[in-house]
Amino acid sequence: MPEHDVLIIGAGLAGQRAALAAAQSGVSVAIMSKVHPVRSHSVAAAGGINAAIDVSDDWRSHAYDTVKGSDFLGDQDAIEVMCREAPGEVMHLEHIGVTFHRNERGELDLRAFGGASINRTAYVADITGQAILHVLYEQLLKHSSVVARYEEWFTTSLIIADDGACVGVVARDIRSGRMETFAAKSVILASGGAGQCFKPTTNALICTADGMAQAYRAGAPLMDMEMIQYHPTTLAENGFLITEGARGEGAHLLNKDGERFMSKSAPNKMELASRDVVSRAEQTEINEGRGVGPDGKGIYLDITVVPRKRTLEALREIVNIGKDFAGVDITREPIIIQPGQHYIMGGVKTDIDGQTPITGLYGAGEVACVSVHGGNRLGANSLLDTLIFGRRSGEHAAQRALSTPLPRISDAALRRDAKMIEEIIARPRSGRRVSEIKEELGTTMNSHCAVFRDGPGLQSAYETVHRLKEEAEHAYIDDSGTVFNQDVLGAIELGYMLDTAETTLAAAIERKESRGAQFRTDFPERNDAEWLKHINTTRGADGEPEISYSPVTITQWQPEERKY
Amino acid sequence: MATFTLRLRRYDPESGGPPYWDEHTVELDSHRSVLEGILQAKGRFDGSIGIRCSCRAAICGSCGVRINGQPGLACHTHLDDALASAADGVIEVEPMGNMPVIKDLIVDMDAVHWKKIQEITPWLINREPIPEREYLVPRDAMVDVTQSMACIQCGACVSDCLAMEVDSQFVGPAALAKAYRFVGDPRDAEPFERLRHLAENPDGMYSCTHCFKCVDACPKGVNPMGQIMRLRRIANDDYDIEDRNNGYRHEHAFVKNIRRNGLLHEADLLPDSYGGKFHPRAVPELLSSLPVVIRGLLRRKITPAKALLHPHKASKEVRAIFDHVESEPKRYELNLYVSGDDKDNEPAGAVAEGAKQ
Q1: For residue A277, which of A305, A244, A251 has the smallest C-alpha distance?
Q2: SS3 letters for A319-382?
Q3: Cα A526 from Cα A535, distance rounded (Å)
Q4: Rounded Cα–Cα distance for residues B201 and A21 (Å)
Q5: What is the mean pLDDT of the segment spanning B100-114?
Q6: What is the mean predicted confidence (pLDDT) over A293-322?
Q7: Each residue of A33-64: pLDDT tens digit?
């Protein structure tokens, strides 16, 4: 049985940063991921990372912008920590090798981004996430004597001891099919988001809510799960992301009359209002018949107003995406976009050191909810979130491990999970296919839990998900092998997604107001008197989500009307 | 919506049997990707088809395969393009080459690709002192290394590297492109040691045979061969590191030869490639080529007068080409990030407007 002081699940930015931080304390560290670390979805983060680096900037300004962006649902103590520590973290990244682009003086260049009151976003062309992820992996290779890597290992469950503490995980080596129990003094979940619950989504196929569901099943509360971010600029057909950096560089949004319609809802920030505001404005144009494209469900993103050389240099990835996936030369003509599912602000509830209410279990990155994003995340704050709270989790988990004995655990969980896999493989071919159920989940969520929501729609989606959960119990697969049996992992992931989607719908039904990404057409106003609080969902004894509330931490910024 | 037939190379390591072909017909719009075709087959017909994939948008680097014999990303190849290059109307998808197959389209990248990456000390060795804030470095230097930073480690270049096919020890295109990312980074303390190591290693940067396969294969425009050539030029020009294959001097001898003669003067090319007729390095080379020269004379391929005197001199036109090329301002060659010219600084809309009129 492998044993480690700190075991990290997920090897995106949060996981790798946690591993490197934990290793600094001299404890034994392992990092496990169902894909090779550089395939993690952090790789797709395009635009950049926010930090108050500029001499005329101040972390308090960054914090205020973040609080306002969150529609005052973010916890301000956590936001202060993130924004105060941001410049140091970006300098650390620069020192270990991230190739941040420079200004003419050779200093880090900063670009404009949505919801920010000053240029504050450091970037590497439009491959910032990729550049940081690959540089962190370089550091993992450099420190391979102190950080063990389990690449292409799939976590099937968290192990909870009788005293309620998390003491390890069960995982399957995807390549050999071998199951193993891992004992650990601290476990850090850093396994990313839940975008595959939606179709279309900007998220990768691996973003299947694994960590959220594992924690939820282990008894941890999920917080702010109703807060699903729809990114304003995604390709209509397949949901691919067009970075906010495009608007940061000056691109316009136009309706079918060629009007820059953002002047109506955000006269000051225009296209660079926060994402929930821009997505709602776009959806309104589309719903009121001013959309573009063959079915009128799109909006023009006009990048031709940006100098071509600048576009080729700083937005190269979307030049390629336009060319390869939409057949459009974005430097010559507008591209049709629409709001698309992109990020989940909610997740496993943690404190500012990444600790969940389950002893020994930490969370960082998209899987977690600190909450720094509240009702709506600002662009270029997600990379920052992963790195700051990844590092803090790693440091805290390592300190905890120094004073904790190694747990002794049985192989009961392993036997249970091995049996579960055997049962999936043995299912008769009488039910539905896993892929069909996943498809129905995605389209259901995208129809009823998107930019605009209402009670009856959410309720019908909730009932659909319930039915899908029952169908998933009998869904069959084709692959009965052990080597790279992706089919059986897909069936397990479907279970993770259904549990997580259920909590999202339960929380969205519960919040009877409009705040951030949650816009209820039946409750169109923000209602601070009743709803300035977090909604937590916990798994009840009957398997249904149970709702509870926790207060929003307010330090210096009282809620006010939100205008851009 | 159109129908496409995919012929997938399958291999089940647990069956004990050999690899086999498996055909599926899928229905998708023709600009959808080969990956989407494979995923449709996997979702509808056979969930046991093995392929690594994640982002669907050519950024995670998971789905490297060979399509109709060409290496690339399945998500980055349109179905209609794949059909156009198919031999018999069926799109053929195989695992990448130069790496052992684990199952179906999944190869063992650890055994080859990642092992090679580890050979080049793949992390920044910091120039001291480390500043309190960021290193101050030229703007263009960071844009420049971004091209090799854009590598997504998909392995497509490794798949079809011809040099690697005959010399499995060759460090290979992906690792060498990664090496440029450090050599070209002004923050790195040891570019000389990195280059010397790559030059002295008999399977290092001089083992590239310049075949362009990696340039064609790369889905991200990283141009691995271009990065290798830049490593070589920096080694020679900036650090006086000797090219063990003599290619550097050969290239210069060639250019000098044409500038003078217009047509190639073989009798000068060889000695000039080794430092001139009287250079000690050239003597054994000249002696060893004597049998070839004698055979050439005997078979009347050359005459003594032509061989030694080479009456041809460079014409005005040839000199004009040299003048034109050499008067160009110095550019970062082959680097997509800073290529372009001044009119690209105009808003592109204005350019497009102009083109319409």
Answers
A1: A244
A2: HHHHHHHHCCCCCCCCEEEEEEEEEECCEEECCCCCECCCCCEEECHHHEECCCCCCCCCCCCH
A3: 15
A4: 35
A5: 98
A6: 90
A7: 999 999 999 999 988 999 999 999 999 999 99
List the strands of the sheet with A335-344, edge to edge. Answer: A228-235, A335-344, A299-302, A252-254
**In chain A, positions 145-184, which contact chain B (CB-CB < 8 Å)?**
151, 175
Which region, left, alpha or beta, applies to residue B139 given φ > 0 means left and ψ of -120 to 50 means alpha? alpha
User: How close B356 gets to chain A, by Cα (Å)?
Assistant: 11
The amino acid that residue B197 corresponds to is H
Q: Could you say which residues from 123 to 182 on chain B have a Cβ atom under 8 Å away from some Cβ of chain A?
A: 123-124, 126, 130, 132-139, 141-143, 145-146, 149-150, 152-153, 181
Instruction: Set out the domains of chain A in order of their start, with CATH numbers.
Output: 233-341 (3.90.700.10)
The DSSP string of B168-212 is TT---HHHHHHHHHHHT-TTBS-HHHHHHHHHHSTTSGGG-----
pLDDT for residue A262 is more than 80: yes
CATH superfamily of B110-239: Alpha-helical ferredoxin (1.10.1060.10)
Nearest C-alpha of chain B: how many angstroms from A371? 26
Predicted local confidence at residue B330, as pLDDT: 63
Task: Tell me, yes or no, if A260 is annotated catalytic.
Answer: no
Q: Looking at the domain that runs over B2-107, which CATH code has it been given? A: 3.10.20.30
- Single-letter amino acid code for the residue at A560: E
Q: What is the pLDDT of residue A326?
A: 84
0.90 exceeded by pTM: yes
Q: Where are the domains of chain B?
A: 2-107, 110-239, 247-314
Examine the predicted complex and report whether its ipTM is higher than 0.90.
Answer: yes
- Cα(A38)–Cα(A95) distance, integer angstroms: 20
Tell me which of A34, A39, A439 to substitute to probe the interface with B (most B C-beta atoms closer than 10 Å): A39
Residue tagged active-site, from A111, A172, A275, A400:
A275
- Is residue B337 scored above 50 in pLDDT? no
CA distance B89 to chain A (A): 22
